[in-house]
Amino acid sequence: MSTSEEPTRLPLVLAEPKGRRKPPPHLADLDPDERKARLVELGLPGFRAKQLSTHYFSRLVDDPAEMTDLPAAQREELVSALLPDLMTPLRTLEADRGATRKTLWRLFDGALVESVLMRYPGRVTMCVSSQAGCGMACPFCATGQGGLQRNMSTAEIVEQVVAGARALARDEVPGGTGRVSNVVFMGMGEPLANYKAVIGAVRRLTDPAPAGLGMSARGITVSTVGLVPRIRQLADEGIPVTLALSLHAPDDELRNELVPINTRFSVAETVEAAWHYAEKTKRRVSIEYAMMRGINDQAWRADLLGDVLTSYGDWGWVHVNLIPLNPTPGSKWTASDPADEREFVRRLEAKGVPTTVRDTRGREIDGACGQLAAAPDGSVAE
C-alpha cells in the first residue's frame, strides 16, 4: 500500500509561531531561589516561597483557603504571584473501569492539550503533553495533523502531573489513594522541540520535595521523533531519564514519509544518537514502532529493524515497543493484522532484540493524543 495517496502534507515546523502570549509565571517554572527572588521583587516576604512550594508539591493543595499558614491579608497576593491558574479541565473521559482517565485541558490562551492517567497494579503512569499541537507533521498522527500552536511552559507541563497526583491523593481514581510513579512525555507535541521547558519540567518532577515532586528520574520517559542534536544534548544533562525514539520505519525511504524529520536526520544518524544516549547514560533506549497495516509491518522490515539495532552490539542497549495503531476516524492508517504483528515480534526476537507489544489502554476514549482535542470538524470531540 503506497503512502503517496495521502493528501497534501503539512510542513515540518521546529520553532513555535511568533507572537504567542506566554502563560503567567508559576513557581513550577522556577527553582527555589528564583521563587524567593520573585516574591521579594513584588515586595512580598521571600520565605513564603517555600510554604507555597510545600502546598503545591507536597500537600497538593489547590484551594488558597486551605493554606492557613499564610497570613490572610497577604494570601491572595502570594498565591497570584506564584500559583496562578494555568489550565482548566474541560472534560475527563474514563475507561478500564476508571483506571484510565483522559483529561482535555484549556490553557490560558484557549489552546487545548490532553493528559492521560493510567493506573496499573503497582504503578501509576501519567502521559503528558509538551506542546499545544505538534510541528512534526507525521501523517498518521492526530496531533501532527493539527499543526503546532505553541510550546507549553515548564509549569503547564508539571501541572498535568500535579493534577493527576491530586486526583490520586484524594481517592478519585479507583484503587485507593496513591501517587504518580511514572511520567511519559508521549502526549501532544515533540518534547525535544520544546527542550528548555521539558528539561525544566523533568527537574521539577525530580527535585526533592518541597522544591519539586521528588520522583525518580528512572520513572520518567522522554520521547522524540529524532531531533539528533537534542538527543545528544539530553545525554549530557546528567538526568537518567529513559529515552524513547519513535522510529516507525527502519529504512529512510519509508521513514521520510512517515516521520518527516527523517529528511533532516537519517535512520542511521538517529539510531546512532540513541545508541550514544544509551552508552553515555547506561539507560536502555526504547524504540517506539507504531504498527500500520500494509505500511511498515512487513516481515522483511522486522528483519531490517533487527539488523539496524544489533549493528551496535547486543549489550542490552535497546528494546522495541510495538504499538498497535489507534486509528483516527476516516483515516487510511489502520492497525496491523494480529498475525503480522506476531510475526514481526518473532523476527525481532530471533535477531536477539527484546520486544513487547504496548497495552492499548484508552482506545474507547480516543486514547491517541490529539483525538480528543479536535474532532474532524475542528470542534471539541464529543
Outline of this structure?
The chain has 382 residues and is an alpha/beta fold.
Principal-axes geometry comes out as elongated
Measure the end-to-end span: 32 Å
The radius of gyration is: 21 Å
Q: What is the N-to-C succession of helices and strands?
A: HHHEEEEEEHEHEHEHHEHEHE
Taking the sheet with the most strands, its summary is: 10 strands, mixed
Distinct helical segment count: 10
Fraction of helical residues = 25-40%
Uncertain segments are 1-6, 374-382
Strand order of the largest sheet: 1-2-3-4-7-8-9-10-11-12
Mean pLDDT: 92
Percent of sequence in beta strands = 15-25%
Query: How many DSSP E strands?
Result: 12
Structure, described:
The chain is α/β, with parallel strands linked by helices and 382 residues long. Helices cover 30% and strands 18% of the residues. It has helices at residues 32-41, 48-58, 72-82, 154-169, 195-206, 228-235, 252-258, 267-281, 299-310, 338-350, and strands spanning 87-95, 100-107, 112-120, 123-127, 131-133, 148-151, 182-185, 220-224, 242-246, 285-291, 318-324, 355-357. The strands form 2 sheets. The protein has a 10-stranded mixed β-sheet with strand order 1-2-3-4-7-8-9-10-11-12, covered by helices on one side. Strands 5-6 form a two-stranded antiparallel sheet. The radius of gyration is 21 Å and the shape is elongated. It starts with 31 loop residues before the first helix and ends in a 25-residue tail after the last strand.
